[in-house]
Structure formats: C-alpha cells, structure tokens
Design brief:
four-stranded mixed β-sheet, binds fe (iii) ion, 38% helix, binds guanine, alpha/beta
C-alpha cells in the first residue's frame, strides 16, 4: 500500500496574529504527501478515525499516525521557526567578534572568512554544519546570504534541498568599496547572479528553494549594479534582501557615497529595490520618513537583536514598525549574531524591548513598547513568514498551509527546563476554565527563557521529518 496521508495528534500551539496564542489540545492534523495540511480536527481521540472520516476511500494501511500523547505530558507542536536573515557562510565565526563594530568587523572577521569559502570543501563543510544546526534549533525556513561565489552558492542550494529546509539562497552582490580579494566587477556580478538564479529555478527545481537577489548593502554596491538588480527583481518577480540602517558609522558612509539621496532608504528606492518582496535587515536608525517609505512600498523588516547588541549597533524600535503595519520577522544574522537559534533571538527581542521601554517616561508608553512572550513567538514564526511573503504558506497551522512544524518537549531526560508538578497542565479544557490556559502560557514562557535545542525533539518541513533529538528518535 502507498502512504497517502499522515495524521499528527497532540497539543498544537501557534500564534495566528501578533500577541495572540492559540492552544488546540488533543488535536489531529492531517497532512497530504505534498506536505499540505488537509484537515484540522480539534478535541479528537482517535487520529486514524479522523483520517478515515476525512476521506472515506482511504484504507487504514494508507495512513501513518504520529501520536504524541499522554495529555499530562509537556509536549506540544509549534510552527517551525523562520530565520529571516542569516549569513550561512559566516557560521564558523559565531561568537568571534571581539569588541568590533560593523565596519571594522566586516574587514577583520567577515570578508576573509567569506572569501575562504571559494574552496568547495570548505564551503561544503560550513554549509552542512550550519544547516544541521539551524534545523536542530527548529528553523524550517531561512533566508540565507552565501558569498559572492556562484559555484558554492549553488552547492548551498543543493545541500539545502537534500536536507529538506525551506530556504531563500542569496548570492552576495558587491562591486565596490570591498577588499581586492573579495569583490566582483559589475559584469562578473551580473553573470554570477544569473548563474545562481538560473541554477535554482531551472536545474534544482525544488519549490522549497528560491533565489533571492542580495545586494550586500549600499556601500558595497555601485549604482549600476543596484539598478540592474532592481530591474531583475521586477522582471522576474524575485525576492530581494539587503541590510539597512544598522550602524551610525555606516549611515555616515552612505550619506558620503550617495549625496543625492535624502536618507539611506532612498538609496535603495532610487534603484527600485524596495518592493513587497524586499526584506531589510536591522533598520535600527530609521527616520519617521523612512518608516513611511518602507510602509508605502510594503517591505518587510528582519529584526536581529542579538547581532545588534553584539556589534553595539543599537536597538531597533520594533513596536513602532509594527504600529506602522510593517511586517517584522526575526534574524539570527550569523555571525554578527552569535546564536543559530531563533528561540534565543526571540528571547533577546523581548529583552531589548524592555531596554527601550526603560527609556520611556510615560507608564502607558512603557507598557506599549514591551514585547510579550506571545509577541516574540509570533515574530519567530508567522511574523517571519509574512516578512518573507510566505504568510500564506507557512508560519501557523491552517488548512492549505504546509506542515512545517517542531515538536517541543519540555520534559526530556536532560535539558535546562525544569517543570514542577504543579506547573503541568492537562492542556484540555477543564471545569476551572482558564487555569489550563494560564499554565500553558507559563510553559511557553519557560520554553522561551530556559529552553534550547534539547527541547526540539522533532522537526518537519512540508511533512518530511528533517531532525530528531535524540538522534535515534523516530
Ligand atoms: N552589512 C554589510 N554586510 C553585513 C554583514 O555581513 N552582516 C551584518 N550584520 N551587516 C552587514
Ligand atoms: Fe547581516
């Protein structure tokens, strides 16, 4: 018999909108062979029965059942995390940044490492490792920067397809103000960009893997390169990613290099790089006028709070962006950020918002600026998906979306999360309505603050199991 449907049964938690947690205890989700969620049945006892009720032509042997139960246990499904900004090529430098800030960090640490990935064996080792690590941390979708090299960027796309992560692959474009050993001429950059876009679209042909046009940041891109990329983005409806307004010295450099532009965002807008499918990393020092422009163009923002603290770049005013209706997701920004975990980034996003709140004198404003556990878990999942224009595909558990999920286990033999007896919840509705909800929310907070990859027991992308912890679990 051929397998036609997989049913997952257990407690499902997701964040359908900012600040909102949805808890669906003892629920069955049915997933087709293409990874699509076909039905969701709440308060279900018998997942196989649900499958046979859903499609009466199915034989029991055509259905696989993944049942995670025992209603008292500390396990729940959560949507896979979305890492909206990660430099795969910089992974070996995670944690190594000394006391540098952006511009000297690029010269001292980053460009030499990225250049070294021209060697295929080095690139293969780095890309294999970073993919294993991000999957182990529950990241099911990531938007990657590779290097300027086309061959190793294509290698990254291939490894990604093999390992099963959903990803955007961005060959880095830079043709000015860069070291002699790590730069392309405009002509070379056009050629290598085309090579990567064509390879992914025409040869690899895995719909989970897409190319993303990646001008590194304004200082390292000529006007003609940015114009060409802007035109290509429109002609072929491609995603775009770049850095914006990360560090004050960078802002000064941009003002010097592009005196014709009123502000940093204008540089990209002049070259038609701000589109609905553009993702801008950092956005720490934006003016109100720039926020207006990003809103008008429908761009997404990648908030990278671990990187911004590590490189002393500043504090992104996330609440202000959200209040303006801008889609915001989270980014590890390896290796400006030291952690490959979006859970750790979400934790830092919450803490940075509290630092910003401390600067407010008005109590009401303070409260507003704070991001809650629910807020940052939204940014880590559906928020990130929306920022990458994948909001209708992944990020929450809905019929017709893809089953990209992680199984969280808060009670493993060995992890950092201690749950006491009285903190457990049956998850189910109880006569004491509301009590279980409160306990469940406390468990989410415990996961956010004390959890790590040991709590990520299994990870699926489009219904394919791509990671288990411990490794022997099935
Ligand atoms: N700006 C230009 N390049 C980079 C990079 O690699 N990382 C970060 N964080 N900012 C950048
Ligand atoms: Fe970055």
């Amino acid at each position: 018999m051929i397998l036609k449907l997989t049913v997952y049964h257990g407690n499902f938690v997701d964040t359908p909108s900012l600040g909102d947690v949805r808890i669906r205890p003892q629920t069955t989700i049915g997933v087709g062979t293409d990874g699509k969620i076909l039905f969701i049945k709440e308060k279900s006892q018998d997942p196989l029965r649900d499958a046979l009720d859903f499609d009466q032509t199915l034989q029991p042997s055509e259905v696989a059942v993944v049942k995670i139960s025992g209603s008292q246990d500390g396990s729940f499904f959560f949507p896979g995390f979305v890492d909206t900004h990660v430099h795969a090529s910089q992974y070996p430098n995670a944690g190594i940044f000394g006391s540098s800030t952006l511009l000297d960090w690029l010269q001292t640490y980053t460009f030499p490492l990225e250049a070294s990935l021209k060697d295929a064996d080095t690139a293969r080792a780095v890309y294999n490792r970073v993919l294993d690590r991000t999957l182990a941390n529950g990241t099911t979708t990531a938007s990657y920067y590779t290097t300027i090299d086309a061959a190793s960027s294509n290698l990254m796309a291939r490894i990604c397809a093999e390992k099963g992560q959903r990803a955007f692959i961005g060959k880095v474009c830079m043709d000015q103000n860069s070291p002699d050993y790590y730069v392309e001429l405009f002509k070379e950059c056009k050629h290598s960009t085309r090579q990567v876009v064509d390879y992914i679209k025409k040869e690899l042909k895995d719909e989970k893997i897409q190319p993303v046009l990646t001008p590194r940041f304004a200082p390292s891109c000529s006007r003609e390169l940015m114009s060409w990329l802007g035109q290509l983005a429109h002609e072929e409806d491609l995603n775009v990613q770049t850095h914006l307004s990360e560090n004050l010295a960078e802002l000064e450099l941009v003002a010097e290099l592009f005196p014709e532009c009123e502000n940093y965002s204008q540089v990209y807008d002049n070259h038609h790089l701000l589109t609905k499918k553009t993702l801008l990393a950092h956005c720490v020092h934006l003016s109100d006028k720039e926020i207006e422009l990003l809103k008008l163009r429908g761009c997404g923002v990648s908030h990278c709070p671990i990187s911004n603290s590590s490189l002393a770049s500043g504090e992104c005013r996330v609440r202000l962006l959200l209040d303006n209706g801008i889609n915001v997701g989270l980014g590890t920004d390896l290796s400006g950020g030291y952690s490959s975990s979006i859970l750790a980034v979400a934790r830092q996003a919450l803490l940075v918002s509290r630092h910003l709140a401390m600067k407010e004198t008005d109590a009401k404003k303070q409260e507003h600026v704070n991001l809650s556990v629910e807020d940052v878990l939204f940014l880590a999942s559906l928020g990130g998906a929306q920022a990458l224009s994948l909001g209708s595909v992944v990020g929450s558990f809905e019929v017709n979306k893809q089953f990209d999920a992680q199984l969280i286990n808060l009670d493993p033999v060995s992890s950092n999360v201690d749950v006491f007896e009285w903190q457990r919840t049956s998850w189910n509705d109880s006569p004491k309505e509301g009590e279980n909800q409160k306990l469940a929310r406390n468990l989410l907070a415990k996961w956010l603050f004390t959890g790590d990859d040991r709590n990520t027991a299994r990870v699926w992308v489009a219904g394919r199991l791509v990671h288990s912890y411990p490794a022997s679990a099935t």
